[in-house]
Design a protein that fits this description.
One of its GO terms (biological process) is proteolysis. The chain has nine helices and nine strands. By secondary structure, it is an alpha/beta fold. Strands 2-1-3-7-8-9 form a six-stranded mixed beta sheet, sandwiched between helices. The chain has a three-stranded antiparallel beta sheet with strand order 4-5-6. 51% of the residues are buried.
């Protein structure tokens, strides 16, 4: 009988000592808790829910290594991330735009090379479902070529509303991004140089990403209790009443989202059509 494990990450603010800014968001912790609730209701073993200060590179790495050690062929991991997305300069030549994309964890940025290296430790035919409610998350933002600036962010949302009424976006502010990389450049460079390029990593697991937006878009933190992507996913899921496949779930979410934020569906690793055709969140 197949086994399901889940890991949920939600980061409302980051370590000001490391980034020079808390870059506060309102809803990522709610997103993580909500997705943990879905996982539990579907029979997953919720092995870790890492909220803000607990969502460190050490804890995320440990949680993924633990899952890789326990899951076998036919099992499934649900990994959800809600928080800021960002980038650092590429040092191992695997990014056409010269930038590696990152998940902005509490203590430091988690480079996409690290994430894919950890995916590579999972046994063959394990399914990994990743839901990422963050900016530039279309392919875990591996091909991001957009440089963020204030004008870009303003265009993404309804500028007829007062600034305080507009939703926050989940992109690490450029000044915090610069300060963090300037401070820890040696660390990020060494991480990338110690790992094989993405196209040289062998991933035998079947990885499916449903993201909050395309690589060149920003994701809204939402005006309610969840991020816009997570909120739309919940409405589409209808407390389990949704009927269909991952492909259909993605299409229905896209239809319900505004034009400035288009969720993506992306496969890597073994990339089997069968995974796409499965009932969402089923073990």
């Amino acid at each position: 009988m197949s086994k399901g494990m889940s890991i949920h990450i939600g980061i409302n603010e980051i370590d000001e000592n490391k980034y020079g800014s808390k870059a506060k968001l309102k809803n990522p912790e709610n997103d993580a808790s909500t997705m943990a609730g879905i996982a539990e209701a579907q029979g997953f073993d919720v092995s870790a829910t890492l909220l803000t200060k607990e969502a460190t590179s050490e804890h995320v790495t440990a949680a993924l290594k633990d899952a890789a050690s326990q899951l076998t062929a036919g099992d499934i991991l649900m990994l959800t991330y809600s928080g800021h997305g960002s980038q650092v300069p590429d040092k191992n030549g695997d990014e056409p735009d010269g930038k590696d994309e990152t998940l902005v964890l509490f203590d430091r940025q988690f480079v996409d090379d690290e994430l894919y290296a950890l995916f590579g430790t999972f046994p063959e035919d394990v399914r990994i479902l990743m839901l990422s409610d963050s900016c530039h998350s279309g392919t875990v933002a591996r091909d991001l070529s957009l440089s963020l600036n204030e004008a870009t962010l303003e265009r993404a949302f309804d500028t007829s509303k007062p600034a305080e009424a507009r939703a926050r976006v989940r992109a690490l502010p450029s000044d915090a991004q610069f300060r963090n990389y300037q401070r820890d450049q040696t660390l990020y460079d060494s991480i990338q140089k110690s790992l094989p390029a993405l196209d040289q990593q062998e991933i035998k697991a079947d990885v499916l990403l449903i993201s909050g937006c395309q690589d060149n878009q920003t994701a809204s933190d939402g005006t309610g209790t969840n991020g816009l992507f997570t909120q739309t996913l919940l409405r589409t899921w209808k407390n389990g009443a949704f009927q269909g496949t991952y492909s259909r779930l993605h299409r229905q979410i896209v239809k319900a989202m505004p034009a400035y934020q288009t969720p993506n569906l992306f496969q890597s690793g073994k990339s089997t059509p069968g995974f796409l055709a499965q009932t969402p969140f089923s073990i």
